[in-house]
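In the laboratory, one determines a bound structure by crystallizing the protein with its ligand and collecting diffraction data. In a computational setting the workflow is compressed into a single prediction: the sequence and the ligand go in, and a structural description comes out. We illustrate the idea with copper (II) ion.
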Amino acid sequence: MLDVSSAKSVASQAEASSTPVATMRKVQVQISNFAYTPATIFAKKGEKVQLQIVGTEGTHGFASKGLNLNVRVPEGETVVVDLPTDKAGTFEVYCSVPCGSGHKSMKATIVIE
Ligand SMILES: [Cu+2]
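The predicted complex, in structure-token form:
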């Protein structure tokens, strides 16, 4: 909690921003026609990972049955999701939005170990 006591030294206020916060690793994934970059994402079991999914070309999905994820990512937008890391395994990611000729080839893998 913030201590606003006027008895405190003003000079120490510069350190106020060093309050520890839960470490959240951010991983950016770009989606284009018709691929995910990177195509493989690694995380440790229990690690806090935030996926920043960037639609760089076309509108696609980012879905994984094993991880219970399914988001739609329009071109030019970024969708942020927390990666569930409570169970270890190798999870397939696929596109859940009909997007054209390369739709079925859109695959990525999330490895949690
Ligand atoms: Cu698609």
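Residues 33 and 100 are 9 Å apart (CA to CA). Keep in mind that any predicted model is a hypothesis to be tested, not a measurement.
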